[in-house]
């Protein structure tokens, strides 16, 4: 899901990400790993738990209200954390669709690749806050479960798209 | 008080003089009523239909109809939830596959194929279709017609994939054909539909005149583990062109019973590849059939994650020699999707991410201007 007028802004930010901020985050991650102060694995979140993930926690660095947060590496839509929900909770009165697609993102804190599911929250129209489009691990439509151009409200009662959460499902092997 | 009197006198004098000037003109007659604009038929080959999903709303969308020569807004149609759209081959109808909820964002879902008259921009007829049509950013082969306009093919994604076949004569659904593992409905000739499959093959379905499947074949096409082939290809008749995200062009000849894979070629030479050039965008390819040229949105300093990013640079290729023959560029907001018209003096139209449509005359190779503030989040342009 994309928002064209913000895509341009996102592209500019994307350039900034890839040339400076992301590298900085990457370096920061490496430094932290060198310090060996971090847990090896992050806990596996579940959508049914409304975790307060809006504040950075150890091993999960970055700002979930910002498109350059590491879990958003393949998100395409509005960030639920800006829409009254959180990185892994739907906003009030919207329904999570459990059928979804997945991406793989590297956590700069531990350098590991995580499987992230980008579930859509549905039943109200576009939240229209924090549009974010990143296609780091996206595949074309013939691999639909790796494609973010699809409306993934497919398993919700109403398929009207509101926003997207980014849920850690495990470490990629 | 004195000031008030002077002001009143001046105003009176001015009123008298203006009344004098007016009396020299005949009074306007009352209008005879309110007119109803109808667009000419046949439509100009340059008429463009911009499909806008309006992502900041995403309950309704629109198809905006414009005249790129006069740079005029001609009208629009209202569509339901990211509606795939296509034109009939005879130019008379615009089809949209609309999705509506009875309570706007909730309630009972109804999906219809709506046929709009391209002159009146009003619904001519509709058929209720299974509530399965794909919900995604709209693209060229989510909805298509048979070459004789008899059937319309609606691509479904639930996430099981299938195609709903609508008979435009009977105005009824004739069948739903499962296409497991494959996506989209690339129309081929009068009775065939191609789909791109996750294992890298191309599937070709054949229909009978009753709109039901009579045969299917699958042919190995590309290696999806080695490269990403962008599904948003273009075609001239039954020849389809695709590019990979690194710029290898794959050509399919689908005119026979089985798909024929033609030799691949590259958009970039070694030097350009080294310099970081690669294609990218949403509808990143366009073809002008009368010039036999392919137009491609190109990125410098390309990275894999930018395969759907917009660009200000378009490269032109001669499809016969497969050589680059020119570069077009803009300086405003970058372009996300392309469409070339099919006439002898074609235009290239680009959707820029600033809400405008960029226009190029392809005979002269010149940028002729931009229509600003036309769309919110348009994904594709259709032309006759």
Automatic annotation (TrEMBL), chain A:
Its main location: periplasm. InterPro entries: Amine_DH_Ltc, MADH/AADH_L_sf, MADH/AADH_Ltc_C_dom. It comes from the Bacteria. The record marks 164 as: Transition state stabilizer. GO terms for biological process: amine metabolic process. Pfam families: Me-amine-dh_L. There is a cross-link at residues 101-152 (Tryptophan tryptophylquinone (Trp-Trp)). It is found in: Periplasm. Substrate binds at residues 76, 148-150. One of its GO terms (molecular function) is aliphatic amine dehydrogenase activity. The active site is at 101 (tryptophylquinone 6'-substrate hemiaminal intermediate), 120 (proton acceptor). Disulfide bonds join 67-132, 73-105, 80-163, 82-130, 83-127, 90-121, 122-153. Gene3D superfamilies: Methylamine/Aralkylamine dehydrogenase light chain (2.60.30.10). The modification Tryptophylquinone is found at residue 101. Belongs to the aromatic amine dehydrogenase light chain family. This is Methylamine dehydrogenase. It comes from Pseudomonas alkylphenolica.
From TrEMBL, chain B:
Residues 1-26 form the signal peptide. Its main location: periplasm. The keyword Transcription does not apply. Disulfide bonds join 182-197. Keywords: Disulfide bond, Electron transport, Oxidoreductase, Periplasm, Signal, Transport. One of its GO terms (cellular component) is periplasmic space. The keyword Lipid biosynthesis does not apply. It is found in: Periplasm. InterPro entries: Metamine_DH_Hvc, Quino_amine_DH_bsu, WD40/YVTN_repeat-like_dom_sf. Gene3D superfamilies: YVTN repeat-like/Quinoprotein amine dehydrogenase (2.130.10.10). This is Amine dehydrogenase. It comes from Pseudomonas alkylphenolica.
């Amino acid at each position: 899901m994309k928002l064209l007028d913000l895509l341009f802004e996102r592209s500019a930010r994307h350039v900034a990400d890839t040339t400076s901020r992301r590298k900085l985050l990457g370096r920061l991650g490496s430094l932290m790993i060198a310090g060996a102060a971090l847990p090896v694995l992050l806990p596996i979140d579940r959508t049914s738990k409304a975790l307060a993930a809006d504040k950075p926690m150890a091993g999960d660095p970055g700002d979930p209200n910002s498109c350059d947060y590491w879990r958003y590496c393949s998100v395409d839509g509005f960030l639920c954390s800006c829409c009254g929900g959180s990185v892994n909770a739907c906003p009030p009165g919207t329904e999570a669709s459990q059928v979804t697609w997945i991406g793989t993102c590297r956590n700069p804190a531990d350098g590991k690749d995580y499987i992230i599911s980008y579930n859509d929250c549905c039943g109200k129209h576009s939240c229209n806050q924090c549009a974010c489009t990143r296609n780091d691990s996206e595949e074309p439509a013939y691999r639909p479960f790796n494609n973010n151009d699809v409306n993934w409200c497919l398993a919700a009662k109403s398929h009207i798209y509101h926003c997207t959460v980014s849920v850690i499902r495990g470490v990629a092997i | 008080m004195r000031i008030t009197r002077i002001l009143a006198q001046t105003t009176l004098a001015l009123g008298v003089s203006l009344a004098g000037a007016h009396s020299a003109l005949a009074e306007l007659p009352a209008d005879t009523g309110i007119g109803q604009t109808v667009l000419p038929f046949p439509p100009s080959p340059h008429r463009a239909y911009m499909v806008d999903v309006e992502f900041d709303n995403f309950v309704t969308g629109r198809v905006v109809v414009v005249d790129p020569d006069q740079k005029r807004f001609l009208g629009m149609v209202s569509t339901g939830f990211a509606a795939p759209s296509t034109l009939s081959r005879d130019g008379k109808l615009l089809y949209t596959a609309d999705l509506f909820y009875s309570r706007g964002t909730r309630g009972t879902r109804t999906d219809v194929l709506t046929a709009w008259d391209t002159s009146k921009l009003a619904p001519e007829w509709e058929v209720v279709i299974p509530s399965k049509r794909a919900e995604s950013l709209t693209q060229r082969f989510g909805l298509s017609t048979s070459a004789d306009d008899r059937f319309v093919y609606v691509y479904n994604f639930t996430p099981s994939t299938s195609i709903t076949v609508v008979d435009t004569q009977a105005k009824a659904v004739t069948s739903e054909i499962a296409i497991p593992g494959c996506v989209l409905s690339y129309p081929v000739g009068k009775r065939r539909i191609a789909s791109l499959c996750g294992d890298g093959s191309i599937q070709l379905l054949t229909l009978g005149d009753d709109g039901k499947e009579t045969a299917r074949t699958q042919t190995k096409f590309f290696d999806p583990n080695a490269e990403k082939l962008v599904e948003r290809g273009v075609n001239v008749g039954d020849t389809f062109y695709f590019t990979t995200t690194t710029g290898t062009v794959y050509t399919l000849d689908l005119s026979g019973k089985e798909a024929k894979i033609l030799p691949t070629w590259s958009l970039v030479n070694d030097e350009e590849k080294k310099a970081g050039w690669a294609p990218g965008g949403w509808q990143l390819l366009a073809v002008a059939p009368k010039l036999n040229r392919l137009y491609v949105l190109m990125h410098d300093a390309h990275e894999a994650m930018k395969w759907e990013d917009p660009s200000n640079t378009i490269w032109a290729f001669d499809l016969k020699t497969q050589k680059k023959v020119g570069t077009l560029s803009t300086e405003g907001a970058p372009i996300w999707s392309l469409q070339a018209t099919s006439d002898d003096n074609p235009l290239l139209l680009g959707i820029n991410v600033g809400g405008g449509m960029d226009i190029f005359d392809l005979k002269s190779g010149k940028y002729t201007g931009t229509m600003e503030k036309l769309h919110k989040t348009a994904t594709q342009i259709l032309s006759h």
